[in-house]
Amino acid sequence: MDKSEELSLFFEKNRLKTFKNWPFKLPSACTKEKMAAAGFYFAGSKSEPDLACCFVCLKELDGWEEEDDPWEEHSRRGECDFIKLNKTEEEMTVMELFDLLVKRRLNQMKIASSKKIKALETLGQGYEEDLRNS
């Protein structure tokens, strides 16, 4: 995802556009409109047709059911600064929007560093095993 596409996800109307093939429609509680309002954009594929990702905390959730409330499901899955702010984009100040951008970047760095740490741990285990076997 390029930077302009990434920044566009800060606006609900752009998140909503990502839900082209969302499996749930009214009267379901889990509509694409409610998903976008709860901070999600569609990140699915044929193999994961209901995968959604938060534009701030980057939490990915799937396994949605018709009766799921996106806002509640999101709030139950850990800390998210967008959920904590509890405002529509019309209610947000420029500083609050900027703060969410900073939080997104921090979350991206946490995810990237966790992946690197896991890779280093795996590499270290391989070296440890080689030393024991030599």
UniProtKB/TrEMBL annotation:
One of its GO terms (molecular function) is metal ion binding. Gene3D superfamilies: Inhibitor Of Apoptosis Protein (2mihbC-IAP-1), Chain A. Transmembrane segments: none annotated. Signal peptide: none annotated. The keyword Nucleus does not apply. It comes from the Eukaryota. SUPFAM superfamilies: Inhibitor of apoptosis (IAP) repeat. Keywords: Metal-binding, Zinc. The keyword GTP-binding does not apply. It holds the Pfam family BIR. This is Baculoviral IAP repeat-containing protein 5 isoform X1.
